[in-house]
Amino acid sequence: MDAPRDLLRTNVAVAAGTAVSRVTGLARIVVFGMVIGQTAVADAYDGANNSPNSIYELLMGGVFSAALVPVFTRLFHDDDDEAQRAVVATALVSLAALTAVAVACAPLIFRLFSLNPAAGIDVVAYRNLGTMLARVFLLQIFFYGLTALATAALNARRKFVAAAWAPVAANVVIVVLLALIPLSIDGRPGLDTIADNSTVRWLLGGGATLGIATTAVIVLAVARASGASFGLRADFRHPAVRRLARLSLWTFGYVLTNQVALVVVRNLAEPGSGGPDAYTKAFTFFQLPHALLAASITTTFAPDLARAAASADRQAFVGRLSLGVRLITLLTLPAASLFFVTSRPMIGALLQHGNFTAEAAHNTARALMGFSVGLVGFSVYLFVLRGFYAREDTRTPFVINCFENVVNVVLAIILVDRHGVLGLGLAFGIAYLVSAIVALVVIERRHPEFASLALMRSLCPMLAATAPASLAAWAIGRALGDTEGLGAVARTAASYAVGVVVYVGFLRLLRVRETTALADRLRGLNAGR
C-alpha cells in the first residue's frame, strides 16, 4: 500500500474514532445539563474537574504530549527497548507520587478556581462541594498519564486508532452514571442537597474517574499487545529519562502559563454564577470541529515531522508542515463561520432541556460565538507547534505561548465587564489567531523555504469561499427563526447543509487545489478497498 493512501486510511480511522468519541462526549454534556443545569453545582463540578486536568497538564501533561512522541519515535527507530522501559517506569512512579500529593492538597487546589465567587451564593457550601468532588477527580491524574504514555508508545509505532476510540467507553460510563442521579434525589440538585447525599456525590465524581480509568485500561492493553513494555523499575538517571527531562523544562513553563491564564479567566467568569459552566461548555463545543477535522491531521503528521527532522530532510519537513496548515484551514474555516452564525439555535437544540434553561443556552451560545473567532488559529497554532517539538525545540513554543496567554488575559480583563462570557471567548479566540500567525513567521525565520506569506496567500480563496457560505447559512437560519426544540434542530441542520454546499461549490469554482488533492485521495482510498 502506498504511503499517501495508508496515511489517508489512518486519518479516516482516527477521525471516525474521534467523531464517535466527541458525539458521546456531547451526549455526556447534554445529560449533565439536563440533570444539573447551569448552576453553582455545575460550576463546582467544572472547577473540581479542572483540578486534575490542570495539575496533570502543569507537571506531566506537557511533557507527555509534546516531548514523548519525538523521544519514543527516536527510541523505537533505534530499537532501544531498555530506554523505552526506563522512560515508562520512571513516568509511572512519578505519576503515582504526583497523584497522592494532589489528592492531599485538594482544598487548596480547588480554592484557586474559586477566588472570585459570585455574589449571592453560599461560598462555604460551594467550596466544600468542590473540594469533595476534587478529591475523587484528582485520582484521574494517574490515569491521564497512563493513557498518554500508552498513546505515545502507540504513536511511535504509527498506531493511532485505539487512542482515538478508547474515550468512547469513558463517555458511555459517565453518561450512564449521570442518568442515575435523578433516581437518587428529588428536584434540581443544589449545593446543600448534594453535600448531604453521598450517592449523588459518588455518581458525579466517581463516574468521571471510572470513565477515565476505563480509557487508560483500554489504551494500555492495546499498547502492550503492540509490544510496548510497562514496568515499574524506575531509573531517574537513565540517559533517555534525563533527555526527556531536559526537553520538558521549557514545556513545563509552557503549561504553567496556560494554567495561570485558565485560573484568571475562570475567576473572571465568577464561579457560582453559571459563567464558568457556560465558558466550559462553549469550549467543549469549540473543540468539536478541532478534534474531528484538525486533531487527526496533527496526530498523524507529528511522527512524519519528527522523522523528517531526525533525518535532516528540510524539504520533507517544510512540505509536510505546509500541507498540514492548508488542510487544517480548509476544514476548520467553514466550521468557525458556521459556529458563529448558528451558535444560539445549535446550543438551544442540544442543551436546552430539563434543568438547562433558555438563559443558560443564551449565555453558552454567546461564549461559543467568541471562541469561534479563533478556531482556525487554535488548530493551526497547535499544529505548527508540533513542528518545533519535532525538532526537539521546546523553548520557542514556550515563548510564543507566553505571548498568547498575555494577550488572552489582557483582552479578557478588558472585555469581560461589558460582554461577559462573550468577551472571555473572544479574548481566547483573538489570542490564538494572532499567535498562530506569529508561530508561522517564526517557522519561516528558521526555514526560509517555508514561505509563510505565500502560504497565507494560498489560504485567501478558502476565505473567499467562506464569506458566501456564512451569509447563506445566516439567511436560512434567520428565515426559520426557532432557537429551541425541533425548530432549532431544523434551523441548525438547514444552516449547516446550505453553508457546506455553498462552501464546497465556491471552492470548486475558485479551483482551490487542496480540494482537488483531497478528492483525489478519497477516490484513491475507495479504489483501494
SSE blueprint and pairings:
Blueprint: H1 3-36, H2 40-77, H3 81-104, H4 106-112, H5 123-137, H6 140-156, H7 161-165, H8 167-179, H9 191-195, H10 198-225, H11 239-268, H12 275-310, H13 314-351, H14 358-372, H15 375-390, H16 395-419, H17 421-446, H18 452-480, H19 485-509, H20 513-527
Helix pairs in contact: 1-8, 1-12, 1-20, 2-3, 2-5, 2-6, 2-11, 2-12, 3-6, 3-11, 4-5, 5-10, 6-10, 8-10, 11-16, 12-13, 12-14, 12-15, 13-14, 13-15, 13-18, 13-19, 14-17, 15-17, 16-17, 18-19
Descriptive notes:
- This protein has 20 helices and no strands.
- The protein has 529 residues and is an all-alpha fold.
- The chain has a domain at 1-250.
- The protein is globular, with a radius of gyration of 23 Å.
Runs in which pLDDT lies below 50 for 5 or more consecutive residues are: 525-529
Main pleated-sheet profile: none
Based on secondary structure, the structural category is mainly alpha
- Strand fraction: under 5%
Distance between the termini: 11 Å
| Strand/helix succession | HHHHHHHHHHHHHHHHHHHH
Compact overview of the structure:
The protein is an all-alpha fold.
